[in-house]
Protein 1
Amino acid sequence: MKPMDSKPLKEAARSDEDVLRLARERGVTAASAWNDNFKAAEDDVDFVEGKNQWPEAVRQYRENAGQTCLTLNNVPTFIERVTGEQRQNQPGIHVHAADDFGANYDFIDGKGKRKVRGANVLEGIVRAIQFNSNAEDHYDRAHQHAVESGLGWLRVFTRYANAKDFDQELVIASVKNRWSVLMDPDAEQPDMSDAKYGFVGTSILRSEFDARYPTARVGGIDGLPEDQRNFW
């Protein structure tokens, strides 16, 4: 039994075919593991929209008897109370110094040279990342999804700052389609920080695909096992 904080094992180098095969296998495994959660979450979203608030057996009985099934959907009102509270008290990222290493920086401005706490410098950088990412909107979307269905996702990734050089910047983003995320089902941490892999799927037009990846070779799925063909 290894300790939880042990270093992850370094994976051996893989060929492109091995990487694709591993991705297909992991995709099927994650989709199967998340299937029940996704079904329950979809039922929750339907309930929020007033689609399945009558039990199916009762609805069928009333329809057969010529009776109406009137739905007075009060759920959005209660959801708005929760999400409204979150919008008024936006979450934020705060940096706290854990030790004295790099605790102070020399900062020079119009007033001369002065010491600035490292935690304050880093927090300023984080605030800039949140501002440039419109992070509040993404926090709102992820929280709305979580309240409605129990599934809300936030991502942190890098993008090129401009088209002139190779400088990259951090970006905070949510996921528009909450059902498109497949995380490692063996992850144990609530924030999925110990996940070994994750998928965020999207569908695009063939013309858009060709424009983005003009040299890519489009592969077939006929030779894949049946479960992988169904998944992709």
Note: The first strand starts at residue 104 and ends at 109.
Protein 2
Amino acid sequence: HLSQRRNIGEEKMVAAFARNVENEENLILLYLLTYADARGVGPHVWTTWKGALLWELYHETHNYFVRGGKGEYHWEDMVEQARGRVLTMAGEGIDLEEVEHYFHAMPYRYLISTPPERLARHLALVHSSEYKTISLDYTHDSLKGYTELVVCTKEKPGLFSRIAGTLSAMNINITSAQIYTGTDGSVFDILQVNGLDGKPVTDHETWDKVHSYLTMILEGELT
């Protein structure tokens, strides 16, 4: 239930789960038992996506035990390190001022839960979105069975429902989503999606259509 329905990136949730599990040995046993139970129900109950979520919960809880049950990170240091790495990876035309604005505007939870490499990709989307209604970025993970879609635009009423409706019309299924809104009105919708076959959506023409439809919808040319 926790791995599939809760935000595993929330430290409080991981800490509460760890307190229930009590120790690392119980965690290992529970992980194996959950896997065996799910696989034993039927041939189609277990999926690579469920496995990825279960592994992430195990991994985060294991790290919690390794830290001695201290659910504390040096958050400021982590953000500073991420800021430095993003600055070195920033694309052409992105200067220090733009990086600083990005880190100041975006939510703290987003900055500490997103790897610097992805932050740099997202910053490039913010940069490009200055000249577009909406910017998209997508990467495929065949092992986990999904495409990660990142949508960058400005905050608008009903934005997520429009994105979800467009993807549904294109036979694209949303398996998970993280939504972040910056103080400057920038919005990042990070979605894990797959096709009706349960595999990543790798067809570039499909994503070109999604981008085109969303642009027209947000500009009021299409419902």
Note: The two ends are 36 Å apart (CA to CA).
Protein 3
Amino acid sequence: GGIAGAAYSPDSTLLAIASNIGIWIYDVQSGEPLALLTGHTGGVKSVAFSPDGTLLASGSDDDRIHLWDVSTGEIHHTMLGHIYEHCNVLFSPDGQVLANASDETRIRLWDVKTGDLHRTIEGHTHWVLNIAISPDGKLLASGGDDNMIHLWEISTGRHLHALSADWADVYSVAFSPDGQFLASGSIDGMIRLWDVKTGTLN
């Protein structure tokens, strides 16, 4: 199946591939396929391992997010995620929260232990294309095709900063390892570096 996303396990022994027919799990050292997870009824758009490597999250255009047990291939939880072409599933560094965003204006935060919706974050006026969580797990950044980047406090959902990308859709956001800066990549070919504390262009 066509490939839409990929993720390494935290110990780099496994590679998960999101495809049109399911999720392929490969042994990194040998390159051999170990399993094909087929619980979705649509193409899988995004995959992410939990920080401890025991769970795998997947988002599909069947509008479902599955949480899989990596060792057994069984589904722990299924959440309604409204998944379209651009999709992100992302664990917080402590593994307790799963964030998802797709071709809509909302970002959803899920409780990994229960599968319940923890919080819905809204602020974009058009599709959210990419999200990132800070290394300390306190902040979430989102970029969209409304030419905006937003910074949020995960614990409360409080909006911290709105950053304009100069009339260019934002396809990528990433925090620096120390969490002090945010890099954004836009359709205009520019990479911008932002000060997270002040929300200003560096």
Note: The mean pLDDT is 93.
